[in-house]
Amino acid sequence: MYKTMAKHVVYNIEYDTDGEKVELPDRLEIELPDDTDPEDVEQLLSDEISNITGFCHFGFLIEGE
User: Fold this and answer.
1) Rounded (10°) CA dihedral 45, 47, 53, 54
2) Which ranges in the chain belong to alpha helices (H)?
3) Which mean pLDDT values do the consecutive 10-residue runs of the chain (65 residues) have?
4) I need a surface site. Which of 2, 12, 16, 31 has the fewest CB within 10 A?
5) pTM of this structure
6) Exposed/middle/buried for 34, CB within 10 Å: 0-12, 13-18, 19+?
7) Over the range 35-48, which residues count as b (16 or more CB within 10 Å of their CB) and which as e?
8) How many CB atoms lie within 10 A of CB 9?
9) Domain boundaries defined on the chain
10) Nearest one of 22, 28, 23 to 7, comparing CA atoms
């Protein structure tokens, strides 16, 4: 069955680069299934930022919150 996806925009991402000079995106668009539990959204977005960029982070903001 096809799941509909909701687009989330995260920005102002504070990366943990361990002092390494790296160009990383300040803004990402990440899709999650529409039926994602609202309590899980922030953690899933956090995981996806690391999966996409290969870097951990200290925090981010979610557009619309």
Assistant:
1) 170
2) 41-53
3) 89 96 97 95 98 97 87
4) 2
5) 0.90
6) exposed
7) eeeeeebeeebbeb
8) 13
9) 5-62
10) 28
